């Protein structure tokens, strides 16, 4: 009898244990979810402003970096390039790189015409490409001005930030510490886009010769499709010409009745009254 009771009791205990385990599991699952939990949203990447440049603009930057930095170091080259980019993204200077470099009394005399030694091209090209991709000399900060290191000036608005490539770089700030020129954009908020030069401004767009530097793959650059004008067919409407009088019947006259109203049906009048001058016209006595 005792053995039979044990056989009956064992399934009952297993069933009770399963119920308790299920209750514990359910309680743990529901309690782990917070009622105030929020779903984490992926931030939408901010669109970058695009500044265009041509091969000529690249050459202007290369020349300025070459002649102003005295080719002393890569940091010096990047420092001059950073100043150019700071000016490009500020509203106080020309809107093109060549316009900035060629501005009167701003960069070294003859910067756009003097010869660049061939041996310097590899180092220069690497530095220029780094600037185009977004690299900057971080010590230059928002500086848009520099002069030969070692010179002294009495102006109190000259706030020096670094010395590189034989030049001292500085920002112009007022007594309140604010920049006296429109601030430049941070390097991570814009990109440079190369536009191939063409005689026709629409030619490069039509051929899609548009190369954007340092734009992530996820971003896209829209190019406008230039509509092709539809050639209208030549007009087939010809105005009427008066036909010569028919030789077979010299009395017949071709009259175009009510021409202004658009009634172009010809009418033949062979009456003798139409031949006489002044017929049908009321004569004044």
Topology:
Blueprint: H1 2-31, E1 49-53, H2 55-69, H3 74-88, H4 97-101, H5 121-133, E2 145-148, E3 158-164, E4 167-172, E5 190-195, H6 203-206, E6 210-212, E7 253-256, E8 266-269
Parallel strand pairs: 1-5
Antiparallel strand pairs: 2-4, 3-4, 5-6, 7-8
Describe it:
With 285 residues, this protein is an alpha+beta fold. The chain contains six helices and eight strands; from the N terminus they run H-E-H-H-H-H-E-E-E-E-H-E-E-E. It has helices at 2-31, 55-69, 74-88, 97-101, 121-133, 203-206; strands at residues 49-53, 145-148, 158-164, 167-172, 190-195, 210-212, 253-256, 266-269. A three-stranded mixed β-sheet has the order 1-5-6. A hairpin with a 2-residue loop joins strand 3 (158-164) and strand 4. Helix 2 crosses helix 5 (121-133) and helix 3 crosses helix 5 (121-133). The model is unreliable at 21-28, 207-226, 236-241 and 250-285 (pLDDT under 50).
Output the keywords.
single chain; 285 residues; alpha+beta; 3-stranded mixed β-sheet; 3-stranded antiparallel β-sheet; 6 helices; 8 strands; 29% helix; 14% strand; globular; disordered C terminus
Q: What is the topology, as strand order, of the major beta sheet?
A: 1-5-6
**Count of helices?**
6
Overall strand count: 8
Order of helices and strands: HEHHHHEEEEHEEE
Q: Beta-sheet strand percentage?
A: 5-15%
| Overall residue-averaged pLDDT value | 73
Question: Which overall shape is indicated by the principal axes computed on the Cα atoms?
Answer: globular
Low-confidence stretches: 21-28, 207-226, 236-241, 250-285
State Rg: 43 Å
Q: How far from one another are the termini?
A: 158 Å
Portion of residues in helices?
25-40%
Structural category is alpha+beta
């Amino acid at each position: 009898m005792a053995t039979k009771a044990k056989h009956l009791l064992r399934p009952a205990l297993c069933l009770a244990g399963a119920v308790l385990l299920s209750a514990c599991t359910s309680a743990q699952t529901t309690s782990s979810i917070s009622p105030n939990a929020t779903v984490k949203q992926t931030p939408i990447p901010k669109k970058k402003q695009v500044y265009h440049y041509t091969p000529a603009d690249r050459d202007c930057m290369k020349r300025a970096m070459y002649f102003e930095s005295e080719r002393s170091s890569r940091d010096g080259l990047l420092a001059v390039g950073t100043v150019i980019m700071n000016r490009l993204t500020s509203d106080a200077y020309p809107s093109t790189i060549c316009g900035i470099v060629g501005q009167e009394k701003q960069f070294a005399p003859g910067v756009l015409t003097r010869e660049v030694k061939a041996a310097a091209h590899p180092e220069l090209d690497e530095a220029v490409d780094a600037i185009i991709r977004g690299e900057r000399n971080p010590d230059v900060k928002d500086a848009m001005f520099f002069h030969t290191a070692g010179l002294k000036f009495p102006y109190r608005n000259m706030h020096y930030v670094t010395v590189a490539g034989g030049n001292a770089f500085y920002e112009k700030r007022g007594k309140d510490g604010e920049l006296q020129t429109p601030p430049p954009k941070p390097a991570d908020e814009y990109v440079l886009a190369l536009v191939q030069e063409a005689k026709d401004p629409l030619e490069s767009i039509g051929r899609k010769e548009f190369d954007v530097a340092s734009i992530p793959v996820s971003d896209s650059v829209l190019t406008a499709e230039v509509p092709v004008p539809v050639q209208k067919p030549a007009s087939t409407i010809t105005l009427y010409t008066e036909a010569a009088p028919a030789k077979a019947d010299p009395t017949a006259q071709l009259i175009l009745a009510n021409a202004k109203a658009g009634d172009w049906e010809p009418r033949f009048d062979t009456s003798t009254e139409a031949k006489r001058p002044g017929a049908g016209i009321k004569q004044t006595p």
